[in-house]
């Protein structure tokens, strides 16, 4: 008879989508420092993924890179297959893959809306579905939203709509995994100094956003990665079904 329980000596294994750049890269490195083997997923930038893997292995960790579009259920199933083949199972899934588009609602190209929701909403659902089927007991799933769900900045309509959906399924999935000893949480970062965030913003806009939190600075990818590492660690296992606003004190 097969079992979903990891053996006491089994290495813990993490799948990090969007794991090659920005917050995803920081999460991959942080989990590797916690002695997890990491499957670094990427959509297109193979060089960035290989660089992340090289940084992990140079520090004595274990990692591989695997390409997959998170909205493609077949590609995501193959991603989890690869993790199981290489490392024996999956204990942690952190879905960092995301897409940002800024526009007033009145001017938004609906093709852009579809693309944002395909990656952010459908992609999260597809990855969460595989996580629900494959995570071993004691495991964790972490999704990503945004603190703009609360701040409601103009221009973020498509992005916030896609991320609010992720917050809405967090507790539902946690309850659906009752009795499996698996946690489900979502991190909602505030302004964080990544390429995705900085692109297209003036220094004045960045400065205003940096001054919004009481801590008066932008977050760093490492700030967010440490939250993810806590939620997926034994120390954070009592936190379940929650949306954490990791934003330095914004509303």
What do you see in this structure?
The mean pLDDT is 95. 45% of the residues are buried. The chain has helices at residues 22-33, 46-58, 73-87, 110-134, 148-151, 157-176, 195-198, 203-210, 221-231; strands at residues 13-17, 37-42, 63-67, 92-95, 140-144, 183-189, 243-246. Helices cover 45% and strands 14% of the residues. It has one domain: 3-Layer(aba) Sandwich (Rossmann fold). The N and C termini lie far apart (50 Å). By secondary structure, the protein is an alpha/beta fold. Helix 1 (22-33) runs parallel beside helix 2, helix 1 (22-33) crosses helix 9 (221-231) and helix 4 (110-134) packs parallel to helix 6 (157-176). A 7-stranded parallel beta sheet has the order 3-2-1-4-5-6-7, with helices on both faces.
What amount of the residues lies in strands? 5-15%
CATH topology: Rossmann fold
Class by SSE composition: alpha/beta
Question: What is the correct CATH architecture?
Answer: 3-Layer(aba) Sandwich
Write the element-wise H/E pattern from the N-terminal end onward. Answer: EHEHEHEHEHHEHHHE
Number of β-strand runs: 7
Q: What is the tally of helical segments?
A: 9
Show unreliable segments. none
Number of domains: 1
Mean pLDDT: 95
Identify the CATH class: Alpha Beta
Q: How are strands sequenced across the largest beta sheet?
A: 3-2-1-4-5-6-7
Tertiary shape = globular
CATH superfamily: NAD(P)-binding Rossmann-like Domain
Helix content estimate: 40-55%
Give me the Rg, rounded: 17 Å
Q: How many strands, which pairing sense, and closed or not: the largest β-sheet?
A: 7 strands, parallel
Distance between the termini: 50 Å
């Amino acid at each position: 008879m097969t079992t979903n329980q990891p053996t006491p000596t089994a290495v813990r294994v993490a799948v990090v989508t969007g794991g090659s750049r920005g917050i995803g890269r920081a999460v991959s490195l942080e989990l590797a420092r916690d002695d997890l083997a990491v499957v670094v997923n990427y959509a297109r930038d193979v060089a960035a993924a290989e660089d992340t893997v090289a940084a992990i292995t140079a520090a004595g960790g274990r990692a591989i890179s695997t390409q997959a579009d998170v909205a493609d259920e077949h590609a995501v199933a193959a991603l989890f297959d690869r993790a199981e083949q290489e490392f024996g199972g999956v204990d942690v899934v952190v879905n960092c893959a995301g897409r940002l588009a800024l526009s007033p609602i009145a001017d938004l190209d609906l093709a852009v809306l579809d693309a944002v929701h395909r990656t952010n909403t459908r992609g999260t659902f597809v990855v969460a579905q595989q996580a629900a089927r494959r995570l071993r007991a004691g495991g964790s799933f972490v999704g990503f939203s945004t603190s703009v769900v609360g701040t409601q900045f103009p221009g973020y309509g498509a992005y916030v709509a896609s991320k609010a959906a992720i917050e809405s399924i967090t507790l539902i999935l946690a309850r659906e995994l009752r009795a499996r000893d698996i946690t489900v949480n979502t991190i909602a970062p505030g302004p964080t100094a990544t390429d995705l965030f900085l692109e297209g913003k003036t220094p004045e806009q960045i400065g205003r956003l940096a001054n919004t939190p009481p801590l008066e600075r932008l977050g760093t990818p490492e700030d967010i990665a440490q939250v993810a590492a806590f939620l997926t660690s034994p120390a954070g296992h009592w936190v379940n079904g929650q949306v954490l606003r990791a934003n330095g004190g914004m509303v």
